[in-house]
Amino acid sequence: xxxxxxxxxxxxxxxxxxxxxxxxxxxxxxxxxxxxxxxxxxxxxxxxxxxxxxxxxxxxxxxxxxxxxxxxxxxxxxxxxxxxxxxxxxxxxxxxxxxxxxxxxxxxxxxxxxxxxxxxxxxxxxxxxxxxxxxxxxxxxxxxxxxxxxxxxxxxxxxxxxxxxxxxxxxxxxxxxxxxxxxxxxxxxxxxxxxxxxxxxxxxxxxxxxxxxxxxxxxxxxxxxxxxxxxxxxxxxxxxxxxxxxxxxxxxxxxxxxxxxxxxxxxxxxxxxxxxxxxxxxxxxxxxxxxxxxxxxxxxxxxxxxxxxxxxxxxxxxxxxxxxxxxxxxxxxxxxxxxxxxxxxxxxxxxxxxxxxxxxxxxxxxxxxxxxxxxxxxxxxxxxxxxxxxxxxxxxxxxxxxxxxxxxxxxxxxxxxxxxxxxx
Length: 424
What we know:
The protein is α+β, with helices and mostly antiparallel strands. The protein has two domains: 5-205, Cytochrome Bc1 Complex, Chain A, domain 1; 229-423, Cytochrome Bc1 Complex, Chain A, domain 1 (2-Layer Sandwich). The protein is built from 16 helices and eleven strands. Helix 3 (96-109) packs parallel to helix 8, helix 9 packs across helix 15 and helix 11 packs across helix 15 (386-396). The chain is globular. The relative contact order is 0.16.
């Protein structure tokens, strides 16, 4: 039996995972409308539009939208990424039709009241200031700009204070018309709602004609280099937050499973190499982590840590040592087994709830054009062997693929470059 049922209703792919025993139902509308589709003068428009979809429709005010969901014990939210904008919510079973109708209404008939546009402009400005007060976020944004300079992929999703301040209401509505009303979304539902209810509700909520083409963003372009590139941002804080980024693969690359296993081995758990080496053995950090962020045409592998400024060179040296060791020797058999057990267990636990299931089927359908069966994903991860991990490490861990960003006290490019010499 398939994990979820996929049907086309009113021109829209509708993905449904039914569980009548679930106490609630989760619904998401997924759009290919993230920041990668913004023009230069629209920097921050996708995130801005996401906020404004909550500010009133032709039928309901801002308060009425939230009360319709919260008054039934549910919640309403949204997120914007580089390639996806998603409206989503949860309600107790029995209220799924209302939530589907409301999300579709918000997406297709928002009114963008002038006073709400200006009020939300101020809210987003404060959100940007808040993120600028977080050195880890600053380092991450600086690294993205280093890896993808002068590209949408390298820009902050929320925009800058200047860019958000310069987008007129008309420009925001044009983005909405082009990337929300003008493209085909994916509707995902998981939990206590029958397929017949889904069909009936979706047919009415999505009855207007939806175009099928969504277009492609401008392809990502890498920077060619033979050395490790660095960028530093001085911040009057106690710690240095450092992030290492390495060009990796696109989302559909078959090597992505080996890359994920490599990330687990290095830094995705307390038993990982970097956590054990930098924190448990050396006491240099409170936290250190790794992760993978893949797009439709490219992606990157990241390692992040926060530490005392005087320990930066030593920490980067230890990180370099673990990278070189994996590239030279690969993982041990017991280490690889632990990583597989961890990632497959976490995967299963991550699909326990209706919201997690909804995000899985919705994102899968939007980004891959089909629902990836969890069993298939687990089998591919389980099939990764030490040779694959070693080959991925050898390909990735080269100076020309690396960038390092750091945010902290009296930090400058010369200091960072000296600390990062061991990565070369």
